[in-house]
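Reviewers asked in the last cycle whether our approach scales beyond single polypeptides. To address this, we selected a multi-component target totalling 366 residues and predicted its structure end to end. The input consisted of the following lines:
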Amino acid sequence: MRTIGYHHGDLRRTVLDAAVDAIGESGLDGWSLRELARRAGVSHAAPAHHFGDKAGLLTALAAEGFDLLADTLREAGPDFLEAGLAYVRFATEHPVHFGVMFQPKLYRADDDAVRHARDRAGALLAQGARTVATSEGSENTARAGWSIAHGFASLWLAGALSVPPDTDPVDAARPVLRRLLDR
Amino acid sequence: MRTIGYHHGDLRRTVLDAAVDAIGESGLDGWSLRELARRAGVSHAAPAHHFGDKAGLLTALAAEGFDLLADTLREAGPDFLEAGLAYVRFATEHPVHFGVMFQPKLYRADDDAVRHARDRAGALLAQGARTVATSEGSENTARAGWSIAHGFASLWLAGALSVPPDTDPVDAARPVLRRLLDR
DNA sequence: CTCCTGATCTAGTCATTGACAAGTTCAGAC
DNA sequence: GTCTGAACTTGTCAATGACTAGATCAGGAG
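The resulting structure, written as structure tokens, was:
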């Protein structure tokens, strides 16, 4: 892979990574296509070639996020608690992706790559939920599992949970998710 | 309240409402201070007088949101299920406020009005959680309750839950939140 | 080797925006 | 009647998103 010359070589990935960095630093409002171009050392219009516009870049980010989530869930296996913890781990390791994924207004949710990756993650989530589902109301049990994992991850990322410094989010999530299983 | 003349009379409220409308229509990126000014029929710099900058306006929105949430929780009473459903009702009735509140990077989270309102809502939440807390691990039970309500509300607003059209979010949430109580 | 084609990136442009500075109008206190 | 501060306007500037046209590059066909 080349990094100099007229053709950058891997500009798409470089810009995507720069976007994750910039959004991570300054939030979803604190970045611009031109700033990403400057970071990558290319002209201000180069990113547009790969992503079209701002929404296009976030669409690519969302698709990548759902793919990463699906990979994480697949590795965790079908057990509900493990799947839930994997969900939390994904969110805290990829907070920018996670933040974008669940704000469909920021990107084109009907994009093919997004739809495909989202369906893949959705199928794995449903599989994890099935391990705790009773015969009646398994739909609601699945939603409860997704909700508690998603809610914990969201509140963690928002800094809404007051925890000791250096606490591992997955460790903190374990006893919380367990509350859904045993009482 | 006057609506014409040099002094608008209630520009702060008007701009705040316009912001909720604009964000609701086009998302957190699809609005500008100047557009709000146009909607209110004032000059492009008028909103800045009340809010300073964009973050200032979102700060006001967040503070108002936490206040509304606290009011909703207070009316619902201390029962966990009722508090959880009230939480979901607030989120679905004020989706823009809810969305802003839990993205601290968008506004000044250390603002006095925000802190005060957030603390008030937090105290009421903790109270609701206490009704299901066992002696051991009440902290985790509280977090589980907050997480499942917050998660359900977030997923609902993101359109991630596939439900029949015209479903009431609170009705849909009830059996889900119950999963945390009885098994 | 040369030409061709599509992909990649540059350069230039324009309306819009956020933020700021300075001036104007209004309302109420004294 | 005057003074004072709040509310709002007008003017301005650098930065941005989006668009267009053109330049450069890589690889394949002949």
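Residues 5-7, 32-35, 44-45, 48, 52-54 of chain B lie near DNA strand C (CB under 10 Å from a C1'). We regard this as preliminary and will revisit it once experimental data from Aim 1 are available.
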